[in-house]
Amino acid sequence: MTGFGSAEAGVLGGRLRVDIRTVNHRYFNPQLKLPIELSGIEGELRERLRQMLERGHVAVTARWVEAPTHDAGAVTVDLDRARQVVAAAKELKKKLKLKGDVDLAFVARQPDVMAAANGGPATAESAVTWTDVKPIVEQAARDVLVMREREGGALATELTARLDALERGGATIEQRAPERLTAEHERLKRNVAELAGGVQVDPQRLALEVALLADRVDITEELVRFRTHLAACRQALASGDAVGKQLGFLAQEVLREVNTMGSKANDATITQTVIAMKGELEKFREQLENLE
């Protein structure tokens, strides 16, 4: 989810530049730094970014490369009102023991501190519109998406390699399972013979115990679900959609099946294979943090 995009264009006779940087984050987490002229379109900007980027920590900086020349009327400043605002804010900070400083941006946003000569507030609502800024924001976001897609391609290759390793581990377990079951049968027969001490054992009873053992250690269902989950992971990676959350869920299900196979194993080869598979799964899940 790492990316950078930048775009600029003329707005209100000036030139506005928008930079967007994104890094990994589980959810959509925007952080906007906008000039006061754009404060009125912040909500629309957030929503458009949410539609285009979906996940990640998204830092947006907008600045005037060339100052706007649009004249919305002379601006007047009410210094008395500004002093009252500053004094009230400082008193509030002191009494409530709040953190933060009273700066120019805070004071300028307060009602009646700055006003146009025609009596209206000197804010972005009467000047810059979302229509003016939307093409710039969308172009910067598209640049981010291009960079994300390049990174996503590399991540998909890495994740596919992890899936290949998991699939090889599953094949090793599947190949070993019948041998392990035969060994368990033989071990049970030896143990029964030793415990019986030469006494004749009911063959039917022994066959029943062997059948029960086979049922307890059988991992056929786990292997089927394991392969199904891996196939779903591959399908998701090939879809080209935002699949980070889906793959996170599938990785949990794969881990569940691997753990179950390990608990039923009672076999050194299978146990070692399961440990290696869990290591691959951990690497797989770590990389998902970088995937949208």
Count up the helices.
8
Q: Which residue ranges are poorly predicted, with pLDDT under 50 across at least 5 consecutive positions?
A: 119-126
Radius of gyration: 32 Å
Structural class: alpha+beta
Oligomer state equals single chain
Query: Which second-level CATH architecture of the domain at 149-288 applies?
Result: Up-down Bundle
Please count the beta strands (DSSP E, at least 2 residues each).
Answer: 6
Helix content: 55-70%
Alpha-carbon distance between the two ends = 6 Å
User: What strand line-up does the widest sheet have?
Assistant: 1-2-4-3
The CATH C-level name of the domain at 149-288 is Mainly Alpha
Estimate the mean pLDDT confidence: 83
H and E order: EEEHEEHHEHHHHH
Name the descriptors.
single chain; 292 residues; alpha+beta; Butyryl-CoA Dehydrogenase, subunit A, domain 3; four-stranded mixed beta sheet; two-stranded antiparallel sheet; 6 strands; elongated
How would you describe this structure to a colleague?
The chain has 292 residues and is of the alpha+beta class. Among the domains are: 73-121, no CATH class; 149-288, Butyryl-CoA Dehydrogenase, subunit A, domain 3. 62% of the residues lie in helices and 14% in strands. The protein has eight helices and six strands; from the N terminus they run E-E-E-H-E-E-H-H-E-H-H-H-H-H. The longest helix has 67 residues, at 130-196. The radius of gyration is 32 Å and the shape is elongated.
